[in-house]
Every structure is written in structure tokens, then in C-alpha cells.
Amino acid sequence: MAFAGVNCQSESDELALIQWRATRLAGALGALDFCGPIKRQGEVDSGDSLIPTMRLTAAALSGMAPAAQTSVNPQRGPGQAAAAGQTLAKAMSALEEAAKAASRHRTIGELMGMTG
């Protein structure tokens, strides 16, 4: 429905919409300053460990979307595939960094689930 609502005509259009939305999400998360439940010690996000992981994940998605769009575009220009590949590699690095906190977040989620 989201794709039809903005008149997407092709897979490339759909990926462009995903890219646009992912980029806006990454920008919004990067602009917000969540202090979390722990008193701040001078660093942004010092009180909420989930926000940096969310930022990294959103940034990774924002980098993956143009690579996906480039891969389905038969009319891509010279050098676009190489640029998209470099962006994809950076996105995977961000995703790997975000994954380092997965066990901590899983444990927090399980503890939260126990509180009823």
C-alpha cells in the first residue's frame, strides 16, 4: 500500500522509496538526543545503550538501500555500481558494529519480559 500510495511503478521506484525513508530515519535518530534512565556523564546517549545500536542499524539500512537500487537499475551510469559497492561495504561495517550489542540487548529484553 505504501508503494502504491506514492505511485511506485517498478522495483527500482520501490527501492528508491525505501532508500529515502531509511535515510530520513537515520537522520532523525542521529539528530535526537536520548538521555535514557542513567544520568548522563557528558556523552550523548550515555544513558541509553539501545539508541546507538538503533542509529548504526538505521545507517546500515540507509547504505544498503542504494546498493539494492543500483543492482536492479539496468540504466545505471558508469561508476555507480562501484560507488554503491563501497557504500554497501560501509553499511555492512555499521551492521557488524551494531551486532556487537545484540547479546546485551537480548538480555535486557529478557529481563524486561520478566517484570510482567
Give a quick summary of the entry:
With 116 residues, this protein is mostly helical. Helix content is 69%, strand content 0%. It has helices at residues 2-5, 11-31, 50-71, 80-99, 102-114.
Written account of the structure:
This protein has one domain. With 116 residues, the protein is an all-alpha fold. It is built from 5 helices and no strands. The radius of gyration is 18 Å and the shape is elongated.
What order do the helices and strands come in, and which of them pair?
Layout: H1 2-5, H2 11-31, H3 50-71, H4 80-99, H5 102-114
Helix pairs in contact: 2-3, 3-4
Quick tags:
116 residues, mainly alpha, 0% strand
Number of strands: 0
How many structural domains are formed by the residues?
Answer: 1
Low-confidence stretches: none
Round the Cα radius of gyration to an integer and report it: 18 Å
Overall structural class, as computed from helix and strand content, comes to mainly alpha
Q: Whole-Å distance between the termini?
A: 35 Å
- Helicity level: 55-70%
Oligomer: single chain
Strand content: under 5%
The 3D shape can be described as elongated
Major sheet size, sense and barrel closure: none
Mean pLDDT: 84
The total of helices stands at 5
Order of helices and strands: HHHHH
